[in-house]
Design goal:
Number of domains: 1
Helix content: 40-55%
CATH superfamily: NADH Oxidase
Strand content: 5-15%
Shape: globular
CATH class: Alpha Beta
Number of helices: 8
Strand order of the largest sheet: 1-2-4-3
CATH topology: NADH Oxidase
Order of helices and strands: HHEHHHEHEHEH
Number of strands: 4
Largest sheet: 4 strands, antiparallel
Amino acid sequence: MELGQAIRTRHSVRAYLDDDVPEDVLRDVIDVARMAPSSSNTQPWHVAVVSGEARRRLEAELVAEVTEGVKPYPHFQPGGVGLFGEYKDRRRECGLGYYDALGIGRDDVDARQRIALKNWQFFGAPQVLFLSMPAAFGQVNGLDVGLFFQSLMLLLHERGIGCIPQGALAQFPGPVKRIAAIPEGNEVLCGLSFGYPDLDADINTLRMTRRPVDDVVSFTR
């Protein structure tokens, strides 16, 4: 798969088969992704993969916190903070497109809550990983992790492995840090649910739009 094709065809997968991705495949993907650039070669990222029984325990603990009304307590500022104007509009359109694809009306609060809970059920993916970096690090270091993260997702896609990046999985870090092997002193930036996609699931045909190129670039001579 050429790079341009990989970028254009990668999408968030929300339905999966039960089969685990073999560890040797994950190791190979991470081995290549670690070549991503970082500020002064600091390489601030760490990947913690959770599978099998540990994944089932983690889902149960996350769902318990969410359904018991625990307020989110992420260490790093979540992506929704500070949105305004067109940025907030795009976020709203993304949510509406997702619910519409599932046939859920705008006033069906119960159905929306059930769908939202899928975030902490990893959308049924058999495996999940967590990206973390040292708690004291800031935005530039987070950008470094993002470079690694995009490389990782494209490499998974190249191998026919679906995934969905999830900021929601950083909202309740307690269970994550109890079960996943997060290094001491690190905090969770986000999660990535992944596995082999269920190609028969209608939800996996959903695609989000992107702004036209003239909206995102300017040239000065």
